[in-house]
Design a protein that fits this description.
Elements lengths: L4 H8 L4 E6 L5 E11 L4 E6 L4 H8 L2 E8 L4 E13 L5 H23 L18 E12 L10
Antiparallel strand pairs: 1-2, 1-4, 2-3, 3-6, 4-5, 5-6
Amino acid sequence: MKLAPSLIQFFEAQGCVIVSTIDAAGMPHSACKGIVRVSQEGQVYLFDLYRQKTHQNIARNPKISITAFDEHKFKGYCLKGEARLVKQSDINSQLVRAWEDRITSRLTKRLLLNIHEEKGHPRHPEALLPKPEYLIVMEVEEIVDLTPHHLKEED
């Protein structure tokens, strides 16, 4: 599925997104993940730093959704599709560099906010993150616009 440049920009601008999978009991499981890249061809690349429930759920059932919402703009989307897992040894080095750049950018923004005395977390969590365990590649099959109809911008 082709993705519009505005949708790609929206997701790539998010600090984190909510990734939802289905557990063994059929219940939803949600976790925060950082997007590395979104392609026009409809692939979303996310690194997972921990090989736990999300990994187990995707290995069992590849159906996932990725949700992001910008509260300030009152705009959001949910991407639905199927994911595949890519082990650490098979991850493209360009994606690793893109992830490192995103982490550096997030750390820089946090430092600047702290300088302006807009204190957030007392430590700098991005600097403490472990290396990614594996890559999630999602093929987008459906896009749900979460923006209320009466607030959508007219084209």
